[in-house]
């Protein structure tokens, strides 16, 4: 073995760098350069005709921290996250547990429940927008059928976030389900068997064996969910464009609107940078907490 | 493994539980499929029937005028073509770039391999939405060569070519391939290029299939970035078209339903064609 794993020749090193070169260039130009540019521009009052514009120091940041709309957007992100946890986070876990018990036709159920995950998300969002329409929508037609008064759904300040995430409760995340199922599949048979010898029923086995076993994946998914919620923009953009009265304007959506409607790129970039820092801190904290447990 | 074991499931209680689970899952299926059924059904309603109270499940008469009208009002073929160009362009740049880099890091192991891996994967920390604004400014006036790439396919394709997640997935798979393959190749006198093309790539078909599909779906579904970098509607993808159409007042709801159907059906067909590989691939490469 020693002979075979002899020191790598210079030739090999050269080839290694040739293979890396396209990726290095692509990442340097289209990832690292924009990251630096974004950091740089947040200290400027940008002028798109004559870049970079005027240096303004921290004033974009102090503007954000004095902007009530910024805090409202941040609060919306947090509310979306909490509502997402209540409505969307756990159904794929339950679904994976159920499908995992199926003996015949497991593939059929897994395939069928995965279908919504491949549908273009914007198509589904637009369809639900139609379903939520206050006058001719299906949602109110169903309420009326049960002699309940119709709701204004996406126009209702108290209801709008719940309405946006409600579809995820009924049509749950096929992608997450498949990931949980892969983990469930690896719970060793012996663990269940020895628990049964101790007289553990189905519920006890799920609680003491299954859930602890898949917990590492659940934690990763929890972090990913958190990151996604702090990057949320597409869902409220399609449903309401951020309304009613800014109730669903998230940080990134606020940045998007500053850039697209007001051409205020420096402020948009500043907001995006703040969102990045928040996500970074949360992720780092979480990683530290989980690594300590191990 | 399943929680219920073989012996349990033969007893009355176990059988009832299993039956209950199957029943519950069967009840859930119509909800999963309803959106697709309804968008197709709605595509064949007239512009009046689609805003009728209460809504009808199936069209009273199957009416093709909405479909014809939508294709006349909107350049949907052009939008679909643009979607294919972008998907193809990103796949053709991103997949080779990522596979080559991952191969180098996994099997050739140059100096600073660990740092390089961090260099690639670190970019995953920053969200694509946050990067969109500086990327836009950069594309409007590329440094050094001073070219404006906005309203050019490349404005979408080039920034998408670098996706750390792809390098992560490829490297994970290549790491699992035995190093003896490389040694054997070396004894045969094969250089790194021949080893990559003739040994590694043929053995890695599953991971290539899954990654190409994931990239395809990510590009197909994206609408914020294309909307941003293509201010003129000439290069709009089908998703950008849907977003802008439903946002404006020009389109009737049956027009929009036709667009949704047009955008959804191809990807559903693709899914049925490759679903086995896709689902296995996600379990294989996913978060393990």
Automatic annotation (TrEMBL), chain A:
GO terms for biological process: transmembrane transport. Its main location: membrane. It is a multi-pass membrane protein. Keywords: Cell membrane, Membrane, Sugar transport, Transmembrane, Transmembrane helix, Transport. This is Multiple sugar transport system permease protein. It is found in: Cell membrane. Residues 74-286 form the ABC transmembrane type-1 domain. Pfam families: BPD_transp_1. The keyword Cell membrane applies. The chain crosses the membrane at residues 14-33, 80-99, 111-131, 162-185, 206-227, 265-285. It comes from the Bacteria. Belongs to the binding-protein-dependent transport system permease family. PROSITE patterns: ABC_TM1 (PS50928). One of its GO terms (cellular component) is plasma membrane.
UniProtKB/TrEMBL annotation, chain B:
Keywords: Cell membrane, Membrane, Sugar transport, Transmembrane, Transmembrane helix, Transport. One of its GO terms (biological process) is transmembrane transport. The keyword Transmembrane applies. Gene3D superfamilies: MetI-like (1.10.3720.10). InterPro entries: MetI-like (IPR000515), MetI-like_sf (IPR035906). It is found in: Cell membrane. CDD domains: TM_PBP2 (cd06261). Residues 80-274 form the ABC transmembrane type-1 domain. The chain crosses the membrane at residues 21-40, 80-103, 115-133, 153-174, 195-220, 256-274. PROSITE patterns: ABC_TM1. It is a multi-pass membrane protein. GO terms for cellular component: plasma membrane. PANTHER family: ABC TRANSPORTER PERMEASE PROTEIN MG189-RELATED (PTHR43744:SF12), ABC TRANSPORTER PERMEASE PROTEIN MG189-RELATED-RELATED (PTHR43744). Belongs to the binding-protein-dependent transport system permease family. This is Multiple sugar transport system permease protein. It comes from Cohnella phaseoli.
